[in-house]
Design brief:
By secondary structure, the chain is an alpha/beta fold. The chain is about 40% helix and about 15% strand. The protein has a 49-stranded mixed sheet. It has a seven-stranded mixed sheet with strand order 2-1-7-3-6-5-4. Strand 34 and strand 35 (about 1260-1265) form a beta hairpin.
């Protein structure tokens, strides 16, 4: 502040001269009226004319006038100068108080103007006005100065109170701040008078908080804050409030950045929160800040002055984080607020911040970091208070303990320093002044806890510590250096009386290991300060538990109340408590212990009261955490609501809170088992039972919540870091493992990192173990000292740093610790400020990291030198895999150096440089080199390098010295021809094994010609690809090398691709000359050029020189139809030109394919294909006339060409002359039905036609034979054939000599047209079938089709279904025989239709089989049909299936049919189908009612029928629910069936009385020789009776029967008496050891057996009965008449098979053998097949579920061809491989009688050969290939052979890998297979939507599981 000057000692002119520059600035801002009045004070004879001054005058003119006026009065007499100054002070506004006071002092009062003579004569009115204004303003200034003096006194007292007892004096110049420029939405006009700023304006670096390079002192930071809104940010406890008082103290002493002439208003938000009513600005100032002495006039004068001079006030708003309101910038510029109007306090403060009140005043706001978001758009500058560094912490601790005093204090202080620096948590707290004080109190407690005489020392320090804890703040650096892990001893502290240290310190266990334990210790330290109980506690220190627990237990009730208060404050966001809020005894205790601080508040009524708060917010939060963990009045829901991870990223939407968000940390810490005992002690204060279990349950809940967070994968970096802190507090290593288990890399972004953060990370990272983890730090502010703590993270594999904050110093520090990361694999240091110096440091450190695999230093400033430092360590890092050094301002020199390194560092695999933006080096690993894989050659990519000729020479010289390169990529060079020639000169010297890529490096035909010469000049070059016109893609050029693989001359293959190069026909000559005499080209691509017909002619002329050519691509070259005809001529004349493919007239495709000249004499097949082209009729004629000349087999493809009828006629005219034509493809080319009929007529034009297949917009093919065909087939489908068209078609077909099949399906023929076709059918020569499916037939059409059975002699069968399938087939004789069949399905027949069908059948004497299925027939209609049906002398079978034919209705229908017709020989109902066998007057011989839901009581109607049928021989009631009633019925009718020989009653029940009843009746029915009682329960009594029946039986089936051991033994013994037995079935029966012995004896006695079924008896025999298996097999030796034997599931293995093989040669009549599940391997399988050769009549062979492999399949290929009678082969569920599949296919080819083959799950998906072999099985009906993982290849092969398998009815492909592509092929093949009924495709690679789509095409495809 300027010194005060006595006005009597100063000359007024001198003062004006001294202040003229500032006066010029002030006057320039005044209105023109004020300037005019001041100018009028000059005399008129001064020569100044002010008439030119106007409101519109320029600022420069006004400034010149002011300068002249000031210059005039500077030299004027004293009186005039004084009068001028007085006038200026009265008229002008915004004169700083200091300047105005000085001017008024030297100018005197207004009467001076009257007393002194003046040359300036002023009129009376003007004089009186000046006098009045001066009399008003002068007292106003006096009141203002008096009020400022009072404020100074207030602030001095305030600071004196706050600074009392400070350990160290607070000074603004010793406090450090990290500044940044506020993020303002728009600039606010600068309202600060620049010349009055003391010291000028401080630069405002735009850096984030915590940047060391941008730190300044707080005093410097506040310089230039006048007239601005400045925000000071700091953490809770950083000393913001104390510093603001210190600022006020400096202002009161005339020091500091705030001028003493300003009014300094210090307001606290905690005080403002209490003001709820509206206030004016003056009320806020005088009632709640400082009321002035004096009356209202004085207040008015002060306010007036303030409003007139707002810039002369400074408003300090302390503690915005405690404000109840949020302030933001007003988006729209609003008008000024009236300071006299009462407003809410929040509006007043907002008005100050937004310049709506006192615009131009200085505003200083303090808050915490997270609240600064609200103020960013309001403030002009923001600065963050930095924490203390280690030096300042140490200094504070030493001052606290009085180290400079006596030796005892000095030793104690030195121990305290050691302890503090050895505890990371104490050290982290000590960065903040307030917490540092708390730590000192804690340290003193730890040090004096066990010391004798400690009470005296504690008393000596108590007063100082009590005062120090209140807002003690010290300046400090933000960096933190964590000292080594120094720990003291465990003995009591004993001083030696010297200046040295204490001889011991608290043990390691006593030093808190977590932040929570620190606060527990702090709490104990404060509690121990209570003087009332200190003595008692000291006496109790003899033998005791830990002192902390003793202290806590002594204050249980007080801690309970304090924790309750803390929790309530937390819930209500309250930190200040009035006296009435706290119980008196608790308040007194807390004050004594030092846990409370006292503050003064002025209530809304003006009364001053005392309020209390905890000494720090973290203390309140910790006590609240204690409440949560010890009191059940905080429920689980409240705990979960409070348990949230905080983030260090702040947004304006964050919920406001006054607290530090540390609650969850303390809760996690208290959940540690180490805190359980302390929590139990405190919880006992709340009473109740089970305290310990309740505490442990609450701890478990916290750990569970923490565990859920550990497994979350949605946490951001700040929350992950906070989670690490929580886990560290819990000390739970399993939780730490969970954190790293779900996060392979911990990412931290845009936050400030402190050493305690690194410590928390280390706790978590170290749990990863050998698994390792990554740490990615991006844009995080951190001090170099943080890196010292980083090596504690022992298992870091990946370490990343990304930010411009990190430079060489950071890298140097990092280098010092890198070798300590023994598991480090990857280092990333990118997007930083690293130079060559830092790179050198990192390189030296990385040498000591032998396991490093990846280095990323991109986006720095390494330049060439820095990259060289990194490259020099390549050979020293054996495991290095990847290095990135791009975007480092490097040059070609760096790239050249890296390429040169490839010679010395042989494991470099790839060098990649992209215009210096990307520069990477990839290495091969030693493990790759040691493996059996061949190491690939290295590659180099030098992209977008704009080199000139010398640079190309330099790089080329380096490249030629490189080892063998696989790929050299030089794309993007955009070089001229000279540079390209330079490269071509060096290229033969390069050692390239694969290719060189030159994309976008050659742009002209000249360059193309230069490159073309490589094919002849460089023998190693085998391919050259050039594409010059590929916009927007770059030019594509690649040179492919042979790779050093030498080939014979006749095998050399060379490719030249010059597509999209703009070549003209004249350019071809230059290209041929560049190629030279080389004729090694095999592939030539000239597509997308401009060759035209002339160029094509040149190309065809050059063909003789291209002796090895295989393919030429001339697509898109502007070639016309003339050129197409030219190509057709070339196809005929050029012997090795075999295929021409033209699409879209050559624009899309024009391919010429060649094959070598064949010398074996075989005829070549040539193809001419022209698709998607517009062909005129004349074009067809010209083209085909050229192709007539072809003497080779020809395939002509005219598909997708939209041929008109005229064009098809022209084609038909030429077809007979095209004698070499083998196939004509006109798919998707036939537009009309007329055109299709014209093509069908080719059947009459050319006798070589074998098939015509036409379908609109689909496949249309005509096949030709070499000679005249014996027959042809015609398929004309999906056309709209009207009557005229049909007549023309019939006319054409009449002329065809022989048709194998005629397919007219899907032609919308309807009944009338079908009737016309049926009438003409006898005249058509067809020998296979006619397909009329899907032609909209009705029942009438069905009758017309059925009538062909008697109108056409060669019709063998008719199948009609009018349902979903819409099937209509007429079969003709093909395999001989004269029987005819009629099948009608789902045709919704009525009675009259049945009658008509009966008449048709009656008129057809050769019709022997009639099937009706699901035709919605009624019982009466069926009866009528049977009545009308006349079979004559023939036998006929009739079946009808309807859903209702079951149970009683089935019985009724059977009875009615038997009553109506006497021609029924047999009747059978199975499921829902009635089968009748009809024969003229033979009588009923068989009745079967099987599995038709029949019950015993429903059989009654059959009695009369059976009684009237004396010839009945067979009775079968199997698989029904007959029960005892049914048994009794059978027993009652048996006597009336004297001819009955066979009785079958397979059971579905477990009733024992059924067999008992039947056995008794069977004793009387002596004619029964065949008995089937399968599935019954046979009692011992029934068994005894049945043994008497056995001797007369010829067939016995007791499979699945249940009996006792005794009963079974009786039955098996009785088998020995069955000497005439021919059939025996004992499947799945229980045979004990004795029963098996008797069974063997029986088999030895019975030599008549023809069928023996003993399946699955091994299941009851067990593994111990292997010898019994051999005995049973041996007993079969005499069964020489055996025809069928089933031994499935015997598990006979090798020994059993050997025994069986000895029997097989004697079984010469064997027809069927089943040996499934017998553990047969290849050895047994081969021998079995050899034995089966003697069974020459074998028809069915079942070998499924064994272990047969390729050897057995190979034996089948040799054996099965000789077994010509085999019809069924089942080898499913074996382990046949690919070779076995091929062998098996050879066998199948020879099995001409094969009807069924099952290959389900055979162990291989390679079944193409087997599928193909089915074409040689003309009788095949069923094929099973399921569960083999077969792909589309098998489906395609099946589709190929299906048309050859006309009897195939079922294919099983379920659970394979057939896609919709394969299914589509099957759909197309099914069109030629009308007999095929089902293709199973469940569980294949076909989506449900695709399955539905193809199923609509053909419903025979089944995608369901059933």
């Amino acid at each position: 502040m300027d010194e005060e000057v006595d006005p009597g000692d100063e000359n007024v002119n001198s003062v004006l001269a001294q202040e003229s520059s500032e006066l010029l600035h002030i006057l320039s801002s005044q209105s023109p009226t004020v300037i005019m009045k001041l100018c009028q004070t000059m005399p008129s004879d001064a020569g100044w004319n002010i008439g030119h001054l106007a409101p519109t005058s320029s600022s420069a003119a006004v400034t010149e006038l002011i300068k002249a006026m000031l210059e005039y009065y500077r030299v004027a007499n004293t009186t005039d100068c004084r009068n001028f100054l007085q006038s200026m002070c009265i008229l002008c506004e915004n004169i700083p108080m200091r300047l105005e006071s000085r001017l008024m002092s030297v100018a005197g009062y207004a009467n001076n103007v009257c007393d002194n003579s003046s040359p300036t004569v002023m009129n009376e009115e003007s004089s009186s006005t000046h006098l009045e204004k001066q009399l008003i303003k002068r007292p106003r200034i006096d009141h203002w100065e008096q009020y400022i003096a009072a404020v100074m006194s207030l602030l001095l007292r305030r600071f004196e109170r706050l600074s009392k007892g400070l350990v160290k004096e607070a000074q603004l110049e010793n406090v450090w701040v990290s500044p940044r420029t506020a993020n303002r939405g728009r600039d606010r006009p600068d309202q600060t008078p620049g010349p009055t700023d003391k010291g000028g304006r401080t630069p405002e670096p735009d850096g984030d908080f915590g940047s060391l390079e941008s730190r300044v002192t707080l005093e410097t930071f506040l310089q230039g804050c006048a007239g601005k809104v400045t925000v000071v940010v700091g953490q809770a406890g950083s000393g913001k409030t104390l510093l603001m008082s210190c600022l006020g103290n400096q202002w009161a002493h005339g020091l500091g950045p705030i001028p003493s002439s300003y009014l300094f208003v210090l307001l606290e938000f905690r005080q403002l929160n209490l003001l709820s009513g509206p206030l004016s600005l003056s009320e806020l100032l005088f009632q709640y800040y400082l009321p002035p002495k004096g009356g209202e006039d004085k207040k008015r004068a002060i306010v007036d002055y303030l409003l007139s001079n707002p810039a002369q006030s400074c408003w300090v708003l302390d503690g915005y984080d405690e404000s109840y309101s949020r302030f933001t910038r007003q988006e729209e510029q609003r008008e000024l607020l009236d300071p006299e109007n009462p407003l809410p306090v929040a509006d007043l403060i907002s008005g100050l911040l937004n310049r709506q009140l006192l615009p131009g005043c200085t505003v200083l706001v303090t808050c915490r970091v997270r609240n600064v978001m609200d103020l960013e758009c309001i403030s002009d500058k923001i600065g963050q208070l930095l924490g203390w560094d280690c030096h300042e912490i140490k200094e504070y601790v030493e001052n606290f303990f009085g180290v400079k005093g006596d030796s005892a204090n000095r030793a104690l202080g030195m121990q305290a320093v050691d302890l503090l620096f050895s505890s990371r948590h104490l050290l982290a707290m000590s960065y903040l002044p307030a917490l540092c004080n708390i730590c000192c109190i804690c340290l003193k407690h730890l040090l004096l806890e066990d010391e004798e005489g400690g009470t005296e020392v504690q008393s000596r320090e108590q007063d100082r510590g009590s005062d120090t804890r209140r807002k003690a703040t010290e300046n400090g650096l933000k960096g933190v250096q964590i000292a080594g892990e120094r720990r003291g001893g465990s003995e009591h502290i004993m001083m030696d009386g010297t200046i040295g240290r204490a001889q011991s310190s608290p043990t390691l266990a006593q030093i808190p290991s977590t932040l929570t334990q620190v606060y527990l210790t702090v709490l104990g330290a404060f509690l121990s300060r209570d003087p009332e109980k200190r003595g008692k506690s000291d006496k109790a220190k003899t033998t005791k538990p830990p002192q902390r627990l003793i202290t806590l237990s002594q204050y249980q009730s007080q801690l309970s109340e304090l924790s309750r208060l803390a929790w309530r404050g937390l819930e209500e966001s309250k930190i200040l408590f009035l006296k009435e809020d706290i119980p008196q005894h608790v308040l007194e205790f807390a004050i004594r212990a030092g846990l409370f601080s006292q503050v003064e508040l002025r209530l809304e009524d003006g009364m001053l009261v005392s309020a209390y708060c905890f000494i720090h917010l973290t203390i309140q939060e910790f006590l609240a955490a204690l409440r949560i963990m010890t009191s059940n009045d905080v429920n689980d829901t409240q705990l979960k609501r409070r348990f949230n991870l905080k983030t260090r990223w702040t947004t304006k939407s964050d919920q406001r809170t006054v607290f530090t968000d540390s609650l969850h940390l303390y809760v996690c810490g208290l959940a540690s088992h180490q805190c359980t005992q302390a929590l139990v002690q405190l919880a006992k204060a709340f009473g109740g039972k089970g305290v310990q279990s309740w505490v442990q349950k609450r701890q478990a809940l916290v750990l569970k919540l923490l565990s859920n967070l550990c497994h979350s994968n949605t946490l951001t970096g700040p929350k992950i870091l906070e989670l690490c802190h929580c886990v560290q507090e819990s000390q739970d290593h399993q939780l730490a493992k969970n954190v790293v288990g779900t996060r392979p890399t911990l990412e931290l972004r845009n936050i400030r990192l402190l050493p305690n953060d690194i410590d928390a990370l280390a706790f978590v990272v170290n749990s990863a173990g050998d698994k390792g983890i990554g740490l990615d730090i991006g844009a995080c502010s951190m001090e170099l000292e943080c890196l010292d703590a980083l090596p504690r993270c022992q298992y870091i594999h990946n370490l990343s740093f990304r930010s411009r904050k990190y430079g060489d110093k950071f890298a140097e520090k990092l280098s010092s610790i890198l070798p300590e990361f023994t598991t480090l694999r990857k280092l990333v240091f990118c997007s930083a400020r690293l130079t060559a110096t830092g790179a050198a440091s990192l390189a030296s450190a990385l040498e000591k990291c032998p396991d490093i695999t990846e280095i990323n230093l991109s986006d720095n400033s390494l330049k060439d030198e820095g990259i060289k430092h990194i490259a020099d360590i390549f050979t020293k890092l054996p495991r290095l895999a990847y290095v990135m050094v791009g975007r480092n301002r490097s040059s070609l020199k760096a790239v050249d150096y890296l390429i040169g390194k490839m010679s010395s560092c042989l494991n470099i695999q790839h060098v990649h440089a992209d215009s210096m933006e990307k520069l990477t080096v990839t290495f091969s690993q030693n493990s790759d080199m040691r493996s059996h894989k061949t190491k690939s050659d290295p590659t180099i990519s030098l992209l977008n390098q704009k080199w000139n000729k010398p640079e190309m020479q330099k790089v080329a010289n380096t490249l030629k010295c490189c080892p063998a390169l696989s790929v050299l990529d030089l794309s993007g060079g955009q070089w001229d021809v000279e540079v390209l020639k330079t490269l071509i000169q060096f290229l033969p010297k390069f050692n390239i094994t694969n290719k060189i890529i030159l994309d976008d490096s050659c742009s002209s035909v000249e360059g193309l010609v230069v490159l073309t010469a490589l094919l002849s000049n460089c023998p190693a070059v085998v391919e050259l690809h050039i594409r010059l016109q590929s916009s927007p893609d770059p030019v594509q050029v690649s040179v492919v090398f042979s790779g050093g693989r030498e080939k014979p001359a006749n095998e050399i293959s060379k490719t030249l691709c010059l597509s999209c190069c703009g070549l003209l026909h004249a350019d071809l000559g230059r290209v041929w000359r560049s190629l030279g005499t080389s004729c090694d080209l095999t592939v030539l691509d000239l597509s997308s050029n401009c060759l035209g017909n002339k160029g094509l002619r040149k190309l065809l002329d050059f063909l003789p020189d291209l002796r090895n050519i295989q393919e030429i691509n001339a697509s898109n070259n502007g070639i016309s139809m003339e050129g197409v005809v030219m190509l057709a001529d070339g196809l005929c004349s050029c012997k090795n030109l075999t295929e021409i493919h033209i699409s879209d007239g050559g624009r899309e495709k024009m391919i010429l394919k060649f094959c070598p000249d064949k010398s074996d004499g075989k005829q070549q097949l040539k193809m001419f294909r022209i698709n998607n082209s517009s062909l005129l009729p004349s074009d067809i004629t010209r083209l085909c006339r050229e192709l007539v000349k072809c003497r080779f087999h020809l395939d002509l493809d005219l598909s997708h060409n939209s041929l008109k009828d005229e064009a098809i006629k022209n084609l038909l005219k030429v077809l007979p002359k095209m004698e070499s034509l083998q196939r004509l493809n006109v798919s998707n080319s036939v537009l009309s039905t007329i055109g299709a009929l014209i093509l069908v007529s080719c059947l009459t034009v050319s006798r070589r036609v074998t098939s015509v297949e036409l379908r609109p917009q689909s496949e249309c093919l005509i096949h030709f034979d070499r000679v005249e065909a014996e027959q042809a087939h015609c398929r004309l489908t999906h056309f709209s054939l009207n009557c005229d068209n049909l007549e023309r078609l019939i006319e054409i077909l009449h002329k065809v000599p022989q048709l194998s099949l005629l397919d007219l399906s899907s032609n919308q023929l309807e009944d009338e047209a079908v009737k016309r076709l049926m009438d003409s059918l006898p005249r058509l020569k067809i020998n296979s079938f006619v397909n009329l499916s899907n032609n909209s037939l009705t029942q009438q059409g069905l009758l017309d089709v059925a009538s062909t059975l008697y109108t056409c002699d060669n019709v063998s069968g008719v199948e009609v279904g009018l349902g979903k399938e819409k099937r209509c087939l007429i079969w003709f004789r093909e395999y001989g025989g004269c029987e005819k069949t009629l099948r009608v399905k789902e045709s919704n027949l009525e009675r009259q239709h049945l009658v008509s069908l009966a008449e048709i059948v009656s008129n057809c004497p050769s019709l022997t089989k009639l099937e009706f299925k699901n035709n919605l027939l009624q019982s009466k209609w069926i009866e009528d049909f049977v009545k009308v049906l006349n079979i004559g002398q023939r036998s006929c079978s009739f079946s009808v299936e309807e859903w209702w034919i079951r149970a009683e209705k089935a019985i009724s229908l059977v009875c009615r049919c038997l009553e109506i017709s006497s021609n029924i020989k047999t009747v059978r109902v199975h499921h829902t189908t009635l089968h009748l066998s009809l024969m003229k007057s033979t009588g009923l011989t068989s009745v079967s009612l099987v599995e038709c839901a029949l019950e015993g009581h429903q059989l009654a109607p059959m009695r009369s029928i059976i009684q009237r049928c004396p010839l009945l021989k067979e009775l079968d009631f199997s698989h029904n629910s007959l029960g005892i009633d049914g048994a009794k019925f059978i027993c009652s009718v048996l006597p009336s069936m004297p001819k009955l020989t066979s009785l079958s009653i397979v059971s579905k029940e477990t009733c024992t009385t059924v067999v008992e009843e039947l056995s008794e009746a069977l004793l009387q029915s002596t004619t029964v020789q065949s008995l089937n009682l399968s599935g019954h329960v046979i009692s011992d009594a029934a068994a005894q009776t049945m043994t008497r029946i056995f001797p007369r039986l010829r067939s016995l089936n007791l499979s699945h029967c249940l009996w006792s051991v005794a009963g079974g033994l009786q039955l098996v013994k009785a088998l020995g008496q069955c000497v005439s037995l021919e059939g025996l079935c004992l499947d799945s029966v229980h045979l004990d050891e004795n029963s098996r012995v008797y069974l063997a004896q029986a088999l030895r006695n019975i030599h008549s057996i023809r069928s023996l079924k003993l399946n699955k008896i091994d299941a009851v025999m067990g593994p111990s009965a292997a010898n019994d298996v051999l005995d049973l097999l041996a007993a079969m030796k005499g069964l020489t008449r055996i025809q069928e034997i089933d031994l499935g599931g015997w598990m006979m293995a090798n020994r059993g098979v050997e025994q069986l093989n000895r029997l097989l040669p004697t079984w010469t009549e064997l027809r069927k053998i089943r040996l499934s599940k017998n553990l047969m391997g290849d050895q047994s399988g081969e021998k079995l097949l050899e034995a089966l050769i003697s069974c020459s009549h074998l028809e069915e062979l079942y070998l499924c579920s064994n272990r047969l492999g390729d050897l057995t399949a190979a034996r089948m290929a040799l054996v099965l061809p000789s077994m010509t009678h085999i019809t069924v082969l089942d080898i499913s569920e074996n382990i046949i491989g690919c070779e076995g599949s091929v062998s098996l296919s050879k066998a199948i080819m020879c099995m001409k009688n094969l009807t069924k083959i099952q290959l389900t799950s055979v162990g291989t998906s390679e079944l193409c050969a087997i599928a193909g072999s089915l074409a040689h099985c003309p009788l095949i009906q069923e094929v099973g290939l399921g569960w083999n993982n077969c792909g589309d290849d098998v489906a395609l092969e099946l589709a190929r052979v299906l048309p050859l398998c006309q009897r195939l009815t079922r294919i099983d492909l379920e659970s394979n890998s057939v896609s919709v592509f394969g299914v589509e092929a099957l759909v197309r093949a099914l069109q030629l297979c009308p007999a095929l009924q089902l293709v199973r495709l469940w569980r294949n690679k076909v989506s449900s939507s695709e399955a539905h789509r193809v199923n609509l095409k053909d419903r025979r495809l089944n995608f369901s599981s059933t």
